[in-house]
Design a protein that fits this description.
The chain is about 40% helix and about 15% strand. By secondary structure, the protein is an alpha/beta fold. The chain folds into two domains: about 140 residues, Aspartate Aminotransferase, domain 1 (Alpha-Beta Complex), CATH 3.90.1150; about 240 residues, Type I PLP-dependent aspartate aminotransferase-like (Major domain) (Aspartate Aminotransferase, domain 2). β3, α5 and β4 form a beta-alpha-beta unit. α1 runs parallel beside α11, α2 runs antiparallel to α9 and α4 crosses α8. It is globular, with a radius of gyration of 20 Å.
Length: about 375
């Protein structure tokens, strides 16, 4: 694999530019400013004090496997056994390990776009050929996945990477759409890697977004990846998991062994506590919903803006008429207006003409940042 074949992240480019400047408001990264659960922090410290610093079982500590199995079984329609749970060092590690388990160099991997760049880059790092299927943009700024186009695009593929709720668009597949996607992957013999890291961040009153765990059978060629980073505001903890097909967990554990050799036990005990902290999840969902409403309100009245509040995740993906160089606009916004946002082009060619805003932020910070963004957009879109 030629390292030069993996593109440099344009999100990181804006982040480095912002880091060199004073007084910048960050709406750039996929990270909330909300503190991690106190219950998780306390459990981690207790585990450290108790000596949980030796090599862990590479599959994950049994208490976390069991807690995740119980949590997922309660949340979704199919039971999940703990012998299908593989703990990983982050959601991104989960996706990379899923790709390592299913894809060989030269094979074709499909993902829908706009897409978080790390997904495609992880496949490129495996030596895969990466193809993109554009989500269909709707006049109001929403997106949908065309299943007929997916059917054609899956021909000859080894794996399809699904991300719902989606980063950056907020598109969230319905149960019917998921069933259609699963049926097509079955028909084409394609592995389905489902990145469900934003599953708890939906805004229609449901506990979670529709999931492959609601419809896929244990023997399906489906790997469901998730992490504590988003729904529990634990981005820096680097703690994720994979739900594997029945009977394959220990083989996937062998890949984890040669990739990152397991996850620190004390961190995993923090995950156990977080799973049991229902009040925290409810509070954080409300926090994100407040940010979503504020961004929608502060985008009103801007000429040429194409935007509808997302169904899921914690991003506003804002389209603007006449915006043809989102990277240049993002540079302008950070240097002239002191607000850092992600350029749409960072998420593929189909993201050009958009800017991504992370709204999982404290109200006063978000109000100031959005005020700066409004002023900057008026300048560049005049």
């Amino acid at each position: 694999m030629d390292i030069n074949a993996v593109p440099v992240s344009k999100i990181v480019e804006i982040g480095r530019l912002a880091a060199a400047l004073p007084d910048v408001d960050y709406l750039l990264f996929g990270e909330s400013d909300y503190p991690s659960p106190a219950s998780a922090r306390d459990a981690l410290v207790a585990a450290l004090d108790g000596g949980a610093t030796t090599y862990p079982d590479v599959r994950g500590i049994p208490p976390l496997q069991e807690a995740l199995a119980s949590y997922l079984t309660g949340l979704h329609d199919w039971p999940v056994e703990d012998d299908r749970i593989q703990i990983t060092a982050s959601g991104m590690a989960a996706v990379s390990i899923a790709l390592a388990a299913t894809v060989k160099p030269g094979q074709r991997v499909l993902l829908h776009s706009p897409a978080w760049p790390n997904l495609g880059n992880a496949a490129l790092s495996r030596g895969a050929q990466v193809a993109e299927l554009e989500l269909t943009g709707l006049p109001d700024g929403r997106f949908r996945l065309d299943l007929q186009h997916l059917d054609a695009a899956l021909e000859g593929c080894r794996a399809f990477i699904l991300n719902s709720p989606n980063n950056p668009t907020g598109w969230t597949a319905t149960y019917d759409e998921l069933q259609g996607i699963l049926n097509l992957c079955r028909q084409h013999g394609v592995w389905l890697i489902s990145d469900e890291v934003y599953s708890r961040l939906v805004y229609d009153g449901r506990a979670a977004a529709p999931s492959l765990l609601d419809i896929a059978e244990p023997e399906d060629r489906v790997l469901v990846c998730n992490s504590f980073s988003k729904g529990w505001a634990m981005a820096g903890w680097r703690l994720g998991w994979i739900v594997t097909p029945a009977g394959l967990r220990d083989r996937i554990a062998d890949i984890v062994e040669v990739t990152h050799s397991g996850v620190a036990s004390y961190t995993q005990y923090g995950g156990v506590a977080a799973l049991g902290d229902t009040p925290f999840m409810q509070e954080f969902q409300a926090y994100c919903a407040q940010g979503r409403a504020l961004v929608s309100e502060m985008l009103k009245g801007l000429n040429g803006i194409r935007y509808t509040a997302p169904d899921g995740a914690f991003y506003a993906f804002v389209g603007a008429e006449g915006l043809t160089d989102s990277l240049a606009v993002a540079r302008h916004l950070v240097t002239k207006n002191k607000v850092a946002v992600a350029p749409g082009i960072a998420f593929g060619e189909s993201g050009e003409g958009f800017l991504r805003i992370c709204f999982a932020q404290r109200r006063d910070r978000l109000e100031r940042a959005m005020g700066r963004l409004r002023a900057g957009l008026k300048e560049v879109l005049a």
